[in-house]
Amino acid sequence: MSGFVPVLTVLVLLGAATSAHAAQTYYVRTDGGSAGQCTGLADAPYPGHGKDQACAWNSPLVALPTHDMARIDGGDTLLIGPGDYLVGWGAPGLEESERCYGDARYDCYPSAVPGGRSSDQRTRILGRGHDAGCAASPRLIGVERVDMVFNLEGSDHVEIGCLEITDRSDCIEFHTDDAVRCERDSQPFGEWASVGIWAKNSRDAWLHDLDIHGLAGRGIMAGGLRDWTLERVRINGNGWAGWDGDVGDGSSNSGDIVFRHVEIAWNGCAERWKTREIHGCWAQEAGGYGDGLGTASTGGRWLIEDSNVHHNTSDGIDLLYLDEATSTSVTIRRVRAEANAGNQVKTLGNALIEDSVIVGSCAYFNEKFDMTWSDQCRAMGNAVSIGVGDGQLATVRHNTITGEGDCLILTSGGGPSSTIAIEDNALVGNIDFLADADGNPGELTCGHYADDSRAKVLFTGNAFWNVKHDQCPPGDNLCGKAPRLADIDLDHFQPAPVAGSPLIDQATGSRGGVDFLGRPRPHGAASDIGAIEWQGEAAAAPGSNTGETRATRDKAAGPDRSGTTTATPAQRRTGVLKLPGNAGWCVEPALFMGNPLVLMSRPDFARCLLVLHAAWQSTARPGATAYRASHRAAPTSGTGGNGAGP
Which residues contact 405 (CB under 8 A, 6 or more apart)? Predict the structure, then answer.
């Protein structure tokens, strides 16, 4: 018994010590002080004298220094005030370390965020105002060729929110154009950074209300993840890719990988840091990459919903490298994918694509920027590419799909035990861009083509219009009738059916739920074919092409496909738009481009997005170790699948 009392006492003391270490809140503000001057525990400026004062730090690098010994603990909160904060060599708060010194400026990135204690006790790195709409997100600016602005390697149970992550340069790393290429050989390198957020071996992360743009390489480079969620995140205008999941060995993901209210756009392009004007777009044939979202071989249950993936210089959503495990799947729901230079959507394995608008204007970049002819409609430009393995099911339902690639839907792989169900989709063809330019004038896109596949393909309740050979598969499909959409012209495609559309009440499935705009279906006797459920709106605007006129124009030239510089939609549009059929008001397009979080937070996000898209189209359109070791030499191009068609 005498030995029991000391042991019990020690255990009690240890428990008390653990309990005493309550989570702390630290502060960063532009008028704060260094680690020696301020404790970081008060949201107050440095008074100008003294040590260990009750005041905020002056840089996130004080909390997350380059010597990899963070001054915050797991479960703590770091609140960053409005303003600009440099990350990299020469930044306030930077401390030289074994990896960060004058001749290794690229390694002057922050230490990894310490992992939280649990899902209920996350480590939080947040902009002040995160709980009030993020009106003035602090800006983290990578400089001097720093590898990454934000480091989540090994970071579990973390929340990152209400931040802008960017650099202050117009360049792209390794670009073939001297006027666009970043300076990598001579110091000073300039105010550019390679990657916005780097993550590897990270679990249970919640990223929200982030604007990641203008990086010289990737917006997010992340792999080896488990249970990650992105909400209201914008990944735009990054020189190599938006989300690149290839981080070397250990890139495969698991658990739930969720993208919700996310915009991924203009990746493979540079951004003028002062104006956010797009320039210098390039892709794989010129030595770049350009996917909006791409991965290495990966598992995980992927969900992408209520999102917009557009104008990336290769594929939009490339999930062709899923590992086909029974636990691996992808769901794409209420997504608009448009004007990506390759395929708009690629999947492999068990998949569900529903209630989405897919506009395969894959030649949008023709004769623009630094894009080559061979980059137009990469992988034949099929709008949707679906691969399956044995015993797997892919379902494509209630989508509106158009395009100018080889086919609207390409399926591949699988045997007799595999099934691809294509149900209640509106499929609207156009002139096949590549075929038309290759001496087959007027050739149309095909509706569907099976490439090297023995999978069962079941067509039910689809509408086919203006497709090659007037394709009309067996089954209860609607063929040869003009769809009467608000506008089927590829350059300002509006998918809503109008009064008298043959799509109304003609879906064969009994599925309910909501449509692309978040409105309930069915509305009427039965659901409508396509992504949008007609609610009794009036006819289309005068002058729009509702589908009665088949595509006949020369798409090799196409409308407004010339020019080398482009203004962003925010520079083209002003004013407030009213939502049709709604007494409320939408937001200024300029506000959407400057702060998409305002739009994404709306309950009627999808409807507002559609209205803004229509307004935009009415104007002239705008033209870590394995990685860190490899990217210092010129990297190889990203990979992409090969399409095929009849």
Answer: 343, 360, 362, 377, 380, 381, 382, 383, 432, 433, 434, 445, 643
Assess whether pLDDT exceeds 50 at residue 192. yes
Both tokens of residue 30? 């532009």
Lowest mean pLDDT among 76-80, 97-101, 547-551, 567-571: 567-571
Quick check: 310 and 596 in contact, CB under 8 A? no
Q: Is the sign of the CA dihedral 235, 351, 160, 251 positive or negative?
A: negative
Structural tokens at position 126? 């947040």
Residue environment code for 398-422, b if the CB has 16+ CB neighbours within 10 A, otherwise e: bbbbbbbbbbbbbbbbbeeebbbbb
Quote the number of domains for the chain.
3
CB 291 within 8 A of CB 319: no
Q: Considering the domain boundaries, does residue 306 fall inside one?
A: no
Q: Which residues contact 226 (CB under 8 A, 6 or more apart)?
A: 202, 203, 204, 253, 254, 255, 300
Residue 318 falls inside a structural domain: no
Is residue 546 domain-shared with residue 577, that is, in the same domain? no
SS3 410: strand
Q: Checking phi first, is residue 348 left (phi over 0); if not, alpha (psi -120 to 50) or beta?
A: beta
86 alpha carbon, distance to own chain's centre: 25
Distance CA 40, CA 30 (A): 12
Question: For the range 559-563, what are the long-range contacts, defined as Cβ-Cβ under 8 Å and sequence gap of 24 or more?
Answer: 559/491, 560/491, 560/620, 560/621, 561/363, 561/364, 561/366, 561/367, 561/368, 562/367, 562/368, 563/367, 563/368, 563/623
- Structural domain for 123, as ranges: 76-296
Write down the pLDDT at residue 386: 98
Q: Does residue 366 have a pLDDT over 80?
A: yes
Tell me the mean pLDDT in the region 138-148.
98
- In angstroms, how far is CA 471 from the centroid of its own chain? 33
Q: C-alpha distances in angstroms, 524 versus 39, 486, 530, 533, 534?
A: 64, 19, 15, 9, 9
What pLDDT is recorded for position 340?
Answer: 98
Q: Give the per-residue pLDDT at 300.
A: 98
The span from the CA of 527 to the CA of 533, in Å, is 7
- Residue ending a domain, among 296, 314, 334, is 296
Closest CA to 318 of 261, 264, 270: 264
Is 553 inside a domain boundary?
A: yes
Q: Which two tokens stand for residue 528?
A: 């409508």
Q: Which of 190, 99, 192 is nearest to 149 (CA)?
A: 192
> What's the rounded Cα separation, in Å, for the pair 84 and 166?
10
Cα 488 to Cα 509: distance, rounded to the nearest angstrom: 24
- What does the alpha-carbon distance between residue 427 and residue 447 come to, in Å, rounded to a whole number? 7
Whether 519 is covered by a domain: the verdict is yes
pLDDT digits (tens, 9 = 90+) for 224-255: 999 999 999 999 999 999 999 999 999 999 99
The residues that bridge with 401 in the sheet, in sequence order, are 358, 427
